[in-house]
C-alpha cells in the first residue's frame, strides 16, 4: 500500500511504501535509523540487519542525506516518536542519491542558510513554520467564507497609491507610470459597495529601506472591507478573526508548535475580547515609563513592545492623530484631530499585525483630504464615485500574514515566515 507519512496511522501493523527523502541517519553494526521526510511529515525508519537482505542493510548504511527513495516497511505504533509511529523497514529502492548536500546537521550562519533557502525549507523547523503559515491561510478562508464575505482580487499593478507613493516600486505601464500595490484597500472599498462584505488575500510591496526583524519588501496581506459597518463593529470582527486563526493553529498544528518549541499557554489566552487603549493613554503610559515621545508622534517598535508587555493578549491602540494616519480615515465625530482607527499590537514584542479604520464616507471631506495630501482628484475620480453614488458608513482592516506567522510561531525574524523572503539586500534565490 503506497501512502504518506501523515497517513501512516491508518495502517498500523501493515506494510506500506512511502516516497521520501533522507533527512538524517545514524547506524551501528546491527541497526540503522533513517530519519525520513516526505513533505507531509517526518518518521523514523528502523532497519535491523538480521531482518533484511544484505543489500537493503548495505543501502541503509551508505545512503546519503537528502537522497530520495521508496521505503517499504511495517507501521508500528510508538508513543516515544513525535508522530506516534515509526517504520520497521523491509525494503529500500533508491531513486536518486544526493552528493555533498550543503546543509548538514551542524550549525550554519544565517546568510549561508538564506543563500540556500531553496534547500533550507526542507528542514524540520522550516517545515513546521510553513505548515503553521498554511493553517493560518486555511483558517482565514474558513473564517471569512463562514461569515458571508466574498473573496475579491484587487490589482497588483496600480496607477495610484493607497497611502502616497513615497515607498512604492515604480514601473512603466506602456506609456504610463504604474506602481506595485502596497495595499488593495481602495479597490476593496469599491468591491464592498457591490458585494457588501469582501476580503482579499495577496502580495503587497513596500520599497522601504528597512532592515528590522519585522520588515519584508514583499509580503502578503489579508484585507477585509465591510459596507454598513462602523469602527466598533470593525474591531469586533478583528477580534473574532485573530482568535479564530490562533485557536485553529492550536487545534491543528500541535506537532509543529512542539517542533518550534512554542509556549502554547500564551497562545491559548488569545480569545476575544481584546484590551483597548487610546493613543492619548498610550502616550501618557510611555511618558510615565521613561520613553521620550510627544503627542502627535507615531509609535516605533520599542513603544509598541512596551505597551504590549502590559497585556497577555493582542491590544488595540485606537484614535490616532489624523495627521499621522492615511487620508481616507474618518475623523472622530466628537474630536476632529483624531480618527476612528486602531492598530492591533501582538503580545511578546511582535508589534503591529493589523491596521484598520472606519473610512471617510462624506465626499466633501474626502475632497478636502485630497487637497491636504496633494492627491490628484482626477487620478482618484473613481474612488470619489464611491461617495457620489450611494455612500454608506464602511470599515476595513489589513492583517500582515508574515508578522502573524512570526508571532504565532515565536520566531525572531520574519525572514523565516515566507518561503522565499525579499529583503533589502536579498533577491536570491
Uncertain ranges: none
What is the CATH topology descriptor of the largest domain?
A: BirA Bifunctional Protein, domain 2
**Number of separate strands:** 19
Q: Average pLDDT across residues?
A: 96
Describe this structure in words.
The chain has helices at residues 54-62, 110-115, 117-120, 124-146, 185-195, 231-252, 254-259, 264-268, 279-288, 301-308, 363-372, 381-388, 401-409; strands at 2-3, 15-27, 31-37, 42-48, 68-77, 85-96, 150-151, 157-158, 170-173, 176-180, 197-205, 218-227, 276-278, 315-318, 331-332, 335-339, 341-346, 351-358, 394-400. Helix content is 31%, strand content 28%. Strand 17 (341-346) and strand 18 (351-358) form a beta hairpin. The mean pLDDT is 96. It has 429 residues and is an alpha+beta fold. Helix 4 (124-146) packs across helix 6 (231-252) and helix 4 (124-146) packs across helix 13 (401-409). It folds into two domains: 2-96, Beta Barrel (OB fold (Dihydrolipoamide Acetyltransferase, E2P)), CATH 2.40.50.140; 117-416, Bira Bifunctional Protein, Domain 2 (BirA Bifunctional Protein, domain 2, 2-Layer Sandwich), CATH 3.30.930. The strands form four sheets. An eight-stranded mixed sheet has the order 7-11-12-19-18-17-14-13. Strands 2-3-4-6-5 form a five-stranded mixed beta barrel. It has a three-stranded antiparallel sheet with strand order 8-10-9, with no helix packed on it. The two termini are 37 Å apart. It has 13 helices and 19 strands. The longest helix has 23 residues, at 124-146.
